[in-house]
From TrEMBL:
It comes from Setaria italica (Foxtail millet). SUPFAM superfamilies: TPR-like. The lineage of its organism: Eukaryota, Viridiplantae, Streptophyta, Embryophyta, Tracheophyta. InterPro entries: DYW_dom (IPR032867), E2_motif (IPR046849), E_motif (IPR046848), PPR_At4g14850-like_plant (IPR046960), PPR_rpt (IPR002885), TPR-like_helical_dom_sf (IPR011990). This is DYW domain-containing protein. GO terms for molecular function: RNA binding; zinc ion binding. PPR repeats lie at residues 142-176, 243-277, 313-347, 481-515. Residues 559-651 form the DYW domain. Pfam families: DYW_deaminase, E_motif, Eplus_motif, PPR. It comes from the Eukaryota. One of its GO terms (biological process) is RNA modification. Keywords: Repeat, Transit peptide.
Amino acid sequence: MSGAVDASAAAVRRLLLTGVSPSNQLPPLTVKLLHGRLLRLDLLADLTPLLLRALSSSGLHLHALRVHSLLPNPSHLTFPFALKAASRLPDPHSAGVQLHGRSLKLPYHSTPHVLTSLLNLYAKCGLLHDAQKAFDEMPHPGTVSWTALITAYMDAGRVHEAVGVARKAFASGMRPDSFTAVRVLTACARVTDLVTGEAMWRAAEQEGIAGSMFVATAALDMYVKCGEMEKARAVFDRMQNKDAVAWGAMVGGYASNGHPREALELFFAMQAERMTPECYTVVGALSACTRLGALDLGRRAVAMLHWDEVLDNPVLGTALIDMFAKCGSTGEAWTVFQQMRKRDVIVWNAMILGLGMTGHEKIAFALVGQMEKSGMTLNDNTFIGLLCSCTHTGLVKDGRRYFRNMTQLYRISPRIEHYGCMVDLLSRAGLLEEAHQLIEDMPMQANAVVWGALLGGCKIHRNADLAEHVLKQLIQLEPWNSGNYVMLSNIYSNTGRWEDAAKLRMEMKASGVEKVPASSWVELAGKVHEFRVGDKSHPLSDKIYEKLDELGMEMKIMGYKPTTEVVMFDIEDEEKEHTLVHHSEKIAIAFSLLTTEPDETIRVTKNLRVCSDCHTAIKLISRITNREIIVRDNNRFHCFRDGHCSCNDYW
């Protein structure tokens, strides 16, 4: 008879072991039947830990707690399963407190297994103080206990404290496992703590767990979030098995850290590896296309997804609308917007901003009305789109009205971005004193963007005295930014103060500030071509310069004269008179004229502001060639057609 009992016990044990496997859980009814069989065979005492674990894994948490409550002598092996079952109840606190009270009467209360389970339960209840107390009772916490505490702080949103716990763990000599590494690296990524993150990665390498795809991906993401793209790429290149998440992290990292070319190269390399991109990977690729003005590449990227996926995903839809609008294809942006089946406020705002920055302010204003009629609530970003529309078209009265209504009617407190739009609007319109007063009255400290907007107005309206004051503020905020020095130098030169311009140049050199080289990009057949002032590195350079000379002759016949007032400050770059005709955007346009069909729109992206000479020249080139030329600089869009620009010379 005992042989039969032993065989039955072995069979039940095998089934219970199956029930605790995460990938092969037993149905609840089966576990209940096994419980009854254990009672009949009088084997409950021997197999209680396995039964409790199987009950909890099958979702029978109350059943598990009832079984545990009937045990005359619960052990340190059963308490963790009971606490785990309690933590999964809708209201875990009351059951947890009872279990905690019962555990205090037993000699094994201070074992790491029991205390770590208590820690997890209190963390689930949001009682971090009690979770920390449970941890502090452990004389020698192990890796699992340290990881549980780190996770508790992370889940509560107290990530800085989680990283602090990780530092203490390292100091105590903790040896991380792969789960610890992933948690710590994720926490460091969230708070951009490179020092602790790198310490964790080195420890992972020493423990031999750096080869785990999950650990390596977490390290990659940490480096990306900290802006260390070279180190992120080193981790990526070492990974043996790269999944879509790792590829997506790199593509998004390159895009968000100002490396759009690398982002697109990796995105299309991912395609060559037959790896299907996730939604956010495509968003990263679209962001890179937006930065480069690479419209065709953006179309290729989104073509990898099913169109229904785009229309049902507001994140993808927003990225696509933004890409089309900032690449100068407002019509395609509008088409996507109209077809979107799920439009949240972010989608609406993207379309309003896209219309505003491309000079379609009336449609943007009408869309806001339609947005309200549809029941959508305007938010602070909606008003940024409206104020941007006013800024690019000089609608001062409308801008003042929207800025006033935002606070008085919609009860939205202006952010610094709203003040920046208003300062830009007033400054462009020549209302420099009003703009300056607005900065002085702001409830927050003005940043470089706000002061830069006022400096831009000073340049347009040649107010050197105010510009000097503004530049002092800007040098304090960003002493490395050469653009501020160049702007003031332009103002000095425009007002004939050549000695002051030269002195400012000497100050700039003494401070070690170097001018950012101007670059322009055009896309052709899926490849982005970059040009700089006087660039002769391109294989078609000879033909490009022949085309520029040809255009120059025709422009002179039409009365064109180089705008020599832009020949100033940085004589080592685009400001030399003899290089006016060889500015990067002109080279890019000449290249496009040589390589595209006569009816194709030319699209150029520039990293700096288009100078007044180029603006005049491109208007004439659009008439000579009968081409539409869209130029996006770091300030706004210019759509040149038949000798006119969409900005109406207001930029």
